[in-house]
Amino acid sequence: MRLPVDLVLVAAGFVGPELEELGLKSTSFLTERNTLSVGPDWRLEAVVGPSPVFACGDAVRGQSLIVWAIAEGRSAASAIDTHLRGEPSRLPAPVRPYEISW
Fold first, then answer.
1. Kind and range of the H or E run holding 84
2. pTM exceeds cut of 0.85
3. What is the rounded distance in angstroms from the CA atom of residue 15 to the CA atom of residue 91?
4. Hey, how many other C-beta atoms are within 10 angstroms of the C-beta on 97?
5. At 54, phi and psi to the nearest 5?
6. DSSP per residue over 51-77, as a string?
7. What separation, in Å, do the N-terminal and C-terminal C-alpha atoms of the chain show?
8. Contacting residues for 11 by C-beta, under 8 A, at least 6 apart
9. Is pLDDT at 16 greater than 80 in this prediction?
10. What is the pLDDT of residues 23-60, one digit of tens each?
């Protein structure tokens, strides 16, 4: 089933994202760790089209501590705000994708 949406937020915790159901199971969307591959703005660069897809937390880092998910969520929110406004966000962005090794 396909539904038109303006926004989808998935917070699944340690369960992890259901990539197959989201149509993101292809290796073009994944890192070598089988997590979603994002660019410096938390956006899946392999997704083309007018509607960008952003990801963070367990979907990008893999299973980790909640503090990482919170920090990445805040940073992704800042990137999304920048994308929607077309100007730099005033929201805090405490981390960048893959900046700190895990």
1. helix 66-85
2. no
3. 28
4. 21
5. -110, 150
6. S--B--THHHH-S--HHHHHHHHHHHH
7. 36
8. 57
9. no
10. 888 889 999 888 899 999 999 999 888 789 999 988 89
